[in-house]
Amino acid sequence: MYSQFVDTGVERMRCAEELPELERAFQDKIDSDIKIEPKDWMPEAYRQTLVRQISQHAHSEIVGMLPEGNWLTRAPSLRRKLILLAKVQDEAGHGLYLYSAAETLGASREALIEALHAGKAKYSSIFNYPTLSWADVGAIGWLVDGAALINQIPLCRCSYGPYARAMVRICKEESFHQRQGYEIMLALCAGSAVQKRMAQDALDRWWWPSLMMFGPPDAESIHTQQAMRWKIKRHTNDELRQKFVDQSVPQADYLELTLPDPALKRNEQTGHYDFGAIDWSEFWSVLKGDGPCNRQRIATRRQAYDEGRWVREAALAYGAKQDRRRAEFS
Ligand SMILES: [Fe+2]
Ligand SMILES: [Fe+2]
User: Fold this and answer.
1) Quick one: CA torsion of 56, 36, 219, 276, rounded to 10 degrees?
2) What is the pLDDT of residues 211-245, one digit of tens each?
3) Residues in CB range of 315: below 8 A, 6 or more apart
């Protein structure tokens, strides 16, 4: 039980008096890079920010299985199928670690999943785009997992212990995902003219949504400053987006593919690549629920949840039976 949850009048008064001191000690810990653990005192706003971020992250992992799951039965070889299956299973594991991390903050997994199914919870808007060809699986691994990796590596140093520790393993797996995607693109680009065109078409469709994955520009990002003070976030959205562009340009050159941005140009003064304006109206409309696949994604998740009910019930019944047996023999 966390002290801020104790619901008695006396406790509330005590907490109110101690609040400035507790907050100072909390921020001192963060400034000294000491991790905050589930039973430590934390400001309610810190807890809520983390629950929002970790649950959105968990939902993104789970919904993120769907676009690529679409190609599991149609992967072009047994080897490709095995790799893709392993990758999609990794994403399920990431979702489960992250729901567990959110639970350490007092959030209920059922309530989080219910919010997702009711269309109230957000998840990364990129997963509302369709996968039209096998090359999309390559582009997703290369760009979407690549962008996720850039976003997530700094989270290994996040101030909240359970989230930071979950991210260490997740990032190792994301790095494998990024390389498997790039390897698909390499194979396609070294193949026939038709395969190369497929790769270019996938890049054309996934490039801009990948840039949007870093979130709104810093000037419009309402949570960034506080999240940085709390060391939940270590870099701003625009810094991470720039890193992604700088990393992707030589990778696209090596594939001999063209990034779909005529304004993309190396800036000799900054040493970075300047890029064209992002269509934020598309981002907001997809986020609001009007992307090409939003409804389909939620319907698929709901159906999977309903069809898995008997598995959850069986697991709970088995757990209860084990508990009874343990009680009988102790
Ligand atoms: Fe993942
Ligand atoms: Fe991934």
Assistant:
1) -60
2) 999 999 998 887 888 899 999 999 999 999 999 99
3) none
